[in-house]
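ARCHIVE CARD
CATEGORY: sequence design from structure
SOURCE FIELD: tokenized fold
FIELD CONTENT:
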């Protein structure tokens, strides 16, 4: 398939993109969280193509994207009070609400669930694209299933060129991790996946919040996930990732020790760290001064390790702030829960 790469967003390109969606095509587009791969949420035929292009398991539902919160009743049949408050304060923004679905949303979008994930992205290109499509856009992240989510156009092109109808090459994602998923169908709003809207944000408007206990520990045994995406291996680079957690000095010292030992064995080692220490690694990436900066480059860094043939990589986790949960959730998964505690 020839993929149209759209670099300029104007009336002409938007009209072409809208037409692709109307013809049941699939389009990758930038959002503030990560790039999405979208199709008409009303078309089973179009949504099927998303699963095929990504190699995504069919029981992992998609998120329905809208340009405007006024459109929510088109896809959800109930909007609880907490949902209204969250929309009022944070929409458009990096969060997804789990709501009871309308019957016109086909089962393929929600993987047969009676609920639907609804998100209103803030990114102006995403909004213009959804408006041009004229229908709600069902979209997961625009990566090959199991790979780190794409935060740059070049990541999407690497994974999906030739497999989708169009890729909108917008700028880099500013949040860098996928949306916070908040289930508002129960008594207490529950975070199923942490992201740019934090638990503190939710408490500030709803007064209370629950955090699903699988967020940092993964699923145990035969547990059924509330958020089907939880059970799949995610963000898994070829490099073997180890998270080294604790105080800044303790983690830096531990990483130096591990790097030296691996290099002695001839292993190609990468480090992603918060401190400019001399690690002696083959590839060193500095991640910034807080967990939001970390989130911005995390998925790109995982891809960079693979592009450089890194066999083992150590990630320093020593910063404590509101975005810590979102970063740790992705890191622990990418590391297959291989975590070393270096002490505080
Ligand atoms: P992605 O954008 O690729 O992370 O995929 C969307 C994520 O949203 C998946 O991990 C799904 O499990 C989650 N999701 C979508 N719809 C629902 C739903 N109705 N209930 C719970 N989780 C959902
Ligand atoms: Mg994904």
């Amino acid at each position: 398939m020839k993929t149209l790469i759209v670099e300029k967003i104007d009336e002409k390109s938007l009209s072409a993109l809208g037409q692709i969606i109307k013809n049941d095509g699939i389009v990758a587009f930038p959002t503030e969280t990560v790039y999405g791969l979208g199709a008409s949420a009303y078309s089973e035929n179009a949504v099927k193509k998303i699963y095929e292009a990504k190699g995504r398991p069919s029981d992992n539902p998609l998120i329905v994207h809208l340009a405007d919160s006024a459109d929510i009743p088109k896809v959800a049949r109930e909007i609880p009070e907490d949902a209204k408050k969250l929309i009022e304060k944070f929409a458009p923004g990096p969060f997804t609400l789990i709501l009871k679905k309308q019957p016109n949303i086909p089962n393929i979008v929600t993987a047969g669930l009676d609920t639907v994930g609804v998100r209103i992205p803030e990114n102006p290109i995403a909004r213009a694209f959804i408006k041009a499509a004229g229908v709600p856009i069902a979209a997961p992240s625009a990566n090959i299933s199991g790979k780190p989510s794409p935060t740059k156009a070049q990541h999407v092109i690497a994974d999906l060129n030739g497999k989708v109808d169009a890729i909108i090459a917008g700028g880099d994602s500013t949040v860098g991790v996928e949306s916070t998923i908040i289930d508002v169908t129960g008594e207490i709003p529950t975070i199923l996946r942490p992201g740019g809207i934090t638990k503190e944000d939710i408490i500030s408007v709803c007064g209370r919040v629950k955090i699903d206990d699988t967020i940092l520990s993964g699923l145990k045994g035969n547990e059924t996930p509330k958020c089907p995406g939880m059970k799949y291996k995610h963000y898994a680079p070829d490099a073997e990732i180890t998270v080294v957690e604790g105080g800044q000095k303790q983690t830096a010292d531990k990483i130096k020790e591990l790097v030296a030992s691996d290099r002695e064995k001839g292993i190609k080692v990468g480090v992603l760290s918060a401190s400019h220490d001399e690690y002696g690694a083959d590839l060193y990436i500095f991640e910034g001064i807080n967990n939001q900066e970390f989130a911005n480059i995390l998925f790109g860094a995982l891809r960079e390790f693979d592009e450089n043939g890194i066999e083992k990589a150590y990630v320093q986790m020593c910063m404590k702030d509101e975005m810590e949960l979102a970063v740790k959730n992705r890191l622990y998964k990418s590391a297959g829960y291989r975590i070393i505690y270096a002490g505080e």
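CARD ANNOTATION: The longest strand covers residues 240-246. Residues 19 and 133 are 7 Å apart (CA to CA).
SHELF: design records, drawer C
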